[in-house]
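question for whoever is on the cluster today: can someone run the full assembly for these? two chains, 228 residues total. i dont have access anymore since they changed the login thing
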Amino acid sequence: DTEVTQTPKHLVMGMTNKKSLKCEQHMGHRAMYWYKQKAKKPPELMFVYSYEKLSINESVPSRFSPECPNSSLLNLHLHALQPEDSALYLCASSQTRAGGPYNEQFFGPGTRLTVL
Amino acid sequence: SQQGEEDPQALSIQEGENATMNCSYKTSINNLQWYRQNSGRGLVHLILIRSNEREKHSGRLRVTLDTSKKSSSLLITASRAADTASYFCATDATDSWGKLQFGAGTQVVVTP
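^ ran it for u. tokens below:
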């Protein structure tokens, strides 16, 4: 299985709502990522998990809260978002590096988030 | 911040023609990767070239890497309408564990 799945595909939420995005992979990858992508822009890294531990937080506002319950799952909890947070949220996974270069990242199809 | 810069920003060609896009970056890298993204979808990995490699082929794709100029190019030969997509280069910098720095992307349109 070489697929990263993300749910939901689309999400519309108000600024007072709490919602979660989910990501799953069964490739045995121990690094997982959240990216945010605005239209016609490249993906921007938000968080990196390595062996289920948060290793990189790119100064993301606390209204975004990541969680890695196990090696296959990655969640992104959303609370009190702003309209400017509307974007495509992409999850990715990769093999981890052990003293060598990283391999490629495998991306999910993304969740299209609209904040009203 | 983005490390890679790509040009052109947009490219429009006809089926059968070749498409070339370039990527420049600023720091030392472990590898450079190219990804394709169809409109509103996830990214698909195309090819990875390591810092000690100069050229790599995969099907109709040819990637070159010049570490002295800190630049790479992606050539798509005999393009097809299905190649219509945005193409991003991404660098794995030697001092940037776990992070890929994406370029701004090149939007390619292939018309039948």
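summary bc i know u wont read the tokens: The CA atoms of residues 40 and 100 of chain B lie 20 Å apart. The longest strand of chain B covers residues 29-37.
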